[in-house]
Design a protein that fits this description.
Helix content is 44%, strand content 12%. By secondary structure, the protein is an alpha/beta fold. It has a single domain, classed as Aldolase class I (TIM Barrel), CATH 3.20.20. The longest helix is centred in the middle third of the chain and has 18 residues.
Length: 396
């Protein structure tokens, strides 16, 4: 982030916060936000323990509006999950299948291309994550991405989580750096943030044993950033973590962002319990989701965008989240498997007009963006023609 850009919105935030009388329990936090001092672990824990969600949400909304006004960003994308076959068996995952499962699938390159072709005339991003296929190495994905860019040069490829990159590098017997470089040269545009779960290895040992370690997740994203590949980052909450785990997770992401400035967006999402295998999960309520979104905005002062991931929140909570610090509401999606197998009931058939209505209902301005947040267009829904009934006079 340019120093001038930070100064501009920080000055706006200071003016906003000092024009309001805040409850005494938030005085120190408001002072830090007003002067640009990052919040501490203790500040984050205090916010999680506070019963005053409305004030926390108001603070987060002031921070969001200082930077983005009433804008709420979305893009026109489709999710294509290339395979559900996975060598791991994370406890929270309802998507993964063993190779011999009756409903296991793998989209070969031609099948993937034909699936994407159905959406190619109106989407500008394909989001692809999937299982750790035991045979698909860097050459497979390099050919897949090359074919996608050859057939659909206008579509940005956002694909492969950190653990997928680690797996592909291992299969290919090359480094993560070289894997990412090959994939970038083949057409990979950015990485999604999935797989962060909670960046604490004791928690990971229980909920996703065998996945990349906390430090490996950060190192893979750091490598991508240094190569010029932008990425998102995530947090899965509502499993078995404590609030201290959540805040430490945010701090580790913030520290890496301070070093590389490569994270575009933070995507917190609650654990969805249906059909998965983690009976000890805490499960997040609607108010807890809004609290996490708000605290994310307050803690992550150097990660620009906070996403209300409606595939996981559902439309109603996602709409509210736009008033609690979120400035992004993902995209049109069109199809998606991972969250829906886990229990999501969010509709998949949203077009731009439907998304715009949701954004307008939250009191925000819908702004269509590209994947890298470098192109923006305010979306104005087409005016529907007025329907008139024609009456015929009897006897005319």
């Amino acid at each position: 982030m340019a120093a001038g850009e930070f100064a501009d919105w920080q000055d706006s935030l200071r003016q906003r916060l000092t024009s309001v009388t805040w409850p005494n329990e938030f005085e120190e936090i408001v002072e830090k936000l007003s002067t640009g001092i990052p919040l501490s672990l203790q500040d984050g824990v205090k916010l999680f323990k506070s019963k005053d969600l409305n004030t926390i949400g108001s603070l987060a909304n002031h921070v969001k509006q200082s930077r983005f006004g009433n804008n709420a960003y979305f893009n026109v994308n489709v999710h294509v999950n290339q395979t559900n076959i996975c060598t791991l068996a994370c406890k929270f995952c309802a998507f993964r299948r063993g190779r011999r499962a009756a409903d296991a699938y793998q989209l070969e390159i031609d099948e993937y291309i034909e699936d994407l072709r159905k959406y190619s005339t109106f989407v500008d991003e394909v989001h692809s994550v999937g299982g750790l296929h035991p045979e698909w190495d860097v050459q497979h994905y390099s050919e897949l991405f090359r074919r996608v860019k050859q057939e659909f040069p206008h579509i940005h490829i956002k694909a492969l989580t950190a653990v997928e990159i680690k797996h592909i590098a291992s299969l290919s017997k090359i480094s993560v750096h070289d894997t990412l470089k090959i994939l970038m040269e083949s057409g990979l545009g950015s990485l999604p943030g999935g797989g962060a779960e909670i960046l604490d290895d004791d928690i990971r040992e229980i909920i996703c044993r065998g996945k990349e370690s906390s430090q490996e997740y950060l190192d893979i994203h750091k490598t991508a950033h240094l190569l010029g590949i932008p990425t998102n980052c995530t947090m899965l909450f509502g499993t078995i973590e404590t609030i201290e785990h959540r805040v430490n997770h945010m701090l580790r992401l913030r520290d890496l962002q301070q070093e590389t400035d490569g994270f575009q967006c933070f995507v917190p999402y609650p654990f969805l319990p249906d059909d998965s295998r983690l009976p000890d999960a805490q499960l997040a309520t609607g108010t807890e989701i809004l609290r996490v979104v708000s605290i994310s905005r307050l803690m992550l002062n150097n990660i620009p965008h906070i996403k209300a991931y409606r595939m996981n929140f559902g439309d109603n909570i996602a709409e509210l989240a736009l008033q609690f610090g979120a400035d992004d509401i993902d995209g049109t999606v069109q199809k998606e498997s991972i969250m829906h197998l886990a229990g999501s009931t969010a509709p998949l058939d949203h077009d731009k007009a439907m998304l715009a209505k949701l954004v307008n209902n939250a009191g925000c301005v819908p702004v269509q963006r590209n994947t890298t947040y470098s192109e923006f267009t305010e979306y104005i829904a087409p005016v529907e023609p007025v329907k008139r009934s024609l009456r015929m006079a009897v006897g005319d």
